[in-house]
Amino acid sequence: MTTVLISGLGLIGSSIARVIKQENSEIEIIGSDPDDESAQFLLEHHLIDDRQVFTNAVPLADFIILAGPVSVVIRQINELITLPLKPDVFVTDVGSTKEAIMDAAKPLISEGVNFVGGHPMAGSDKSGSRSGKLDLFDHAVYFVVGGTTANPKLVQFQNLLSAAHLRWQVISASLHDQLVSEISHVPHVIAVTLVNTIADDLSRNPDALKAAAGGFRDTTRIAASDPTMWTAIMMSNAELINHELSKFQQHLSHFQTALEARDEEEIKNIFKNAQAVRKSLDERK
Ligand SMILES: NC(=O)c1ccc[n+]([C@@H]2O[C@H](COP(=O)([O-])OP(=O)(O)OC[C@H]3O[C@@H](n4cnc5c(N)ncnc54)[C@H](O)[C@@H]3O)[C@@H](O)[C@H]2O)c1
Ligand SMILES: O=C(O)C(=O)C[C@]1(C(=O)O)C=C[C@@H](O)C=C1
Q1: Where is the Prephenate/arogenate dehydrogenase domain positioned along the sequence (predicted)?
Q2: Boundaries of CATH 3.40.50.720 in the chain?
């Protein structure tokens, strides 16, 4: 019997459990999470078969999927070095940054443990196991760091997730973190900053926020995400995010200069450029 340990039964961990059970119901999934409510929900819905503490579950697992916040993933990788593991265990994670995680995994890898970093490029502003969905990852890119198709256990792991029809992409940790700083982390900071700016301005009239239509809602949905998860992401990719934020500030200053000068042509050029780029994103889908 194949045993999969999922540590972290929130949005991503529970969605992975759903995907595995969809086509591989015979696989035993052990869930591990300090949150009783998330674990209980998955047990009741037969999406995990058992719940155990991390240290007890690790020696039983053929596949270990670390799905807690990035800071917890790093802590658990360090813990794995001290725990008894099955000789051919495959260890992976789903964390949103990869350099810090791959660095933490170096001692484990040099002990011969089959560790491959991972990151599904799909998610939501919701958290917890109730929010997980079978189709959360449908046709999404799934980044793989440190793995090749010559790794039979990685291929088995990919087969476990076949119900999600993922688009697997091998990438280096540094390129990954650069890319996600631009397409995920900075957008998050901007959404959060926008909400806080407006909230300050509207503090004496809270009902005004309820009038917000699609524009505000679409640009700020992700600001409702879990602060613990996002703080861990910021802490582990701070330098690149900071660098990208400086570029953002330059673009913002450029826009302000054009606005102050009532430079109609430049304002329209800025909008035209963004429109073309944003439309091309939908065409490529
Ligand atoms: N939310 C997204 O959109 C998204 C997308 C891709 C990857 N990720 C990454 O996936 C990971 C999980 O994110 P999520 O959205 O599922 O968050 P979540 O908040 O829904 O779930 C995280 C879970 O980890 C649990 N946890 C905390 N400490 C733990 C510990 N010591 N041992 C075991 N579990 C522990 C929490 O109780 C919670 O249930 C993060 O590393 C995140 O960066 C998130
Ligand atoms: O769709 C969302 O709500 C997300 O925030 C998903 C999202 C992102 O696109 O930034 C969030 C974090 C991840 O690591 C990957 C995906």
Answers
A1: 1-285
A2: 3-170
pLDDT digits (tens, 9 = 90+) for 257-271: 999 999 999 999 999
Pocket test for ligand 2, best of 184, 185, 192 (most atoms within 8 A of CB): 184
pLDDT tens profile 69-127? 999 999 999 999 999 999 999 999 999 999 999 999 999 999 999 999 999 999 999 99
Whether the CB of 233 sits within 6 Å of ligand 1: yes
CATH topology of domain 175-283: 6-phosphogluconate dehydrogenase C-terminal fold (1.10.3660)
pTM over 0.90? The answer is yes
CATH classification number, 3-170, choose in 3.30.530.20, 3.30.70.360, 3.40.50.2020, 3.40.50.720: 3.40.50.720
Full DSSP string of 200-255: HHTTT-GGGGGG--HHHHHHHGGGGS-HHHHHHHHHHSHHHHHHHHHHHHHHHHHH
Quote the ipTM score: 0.99
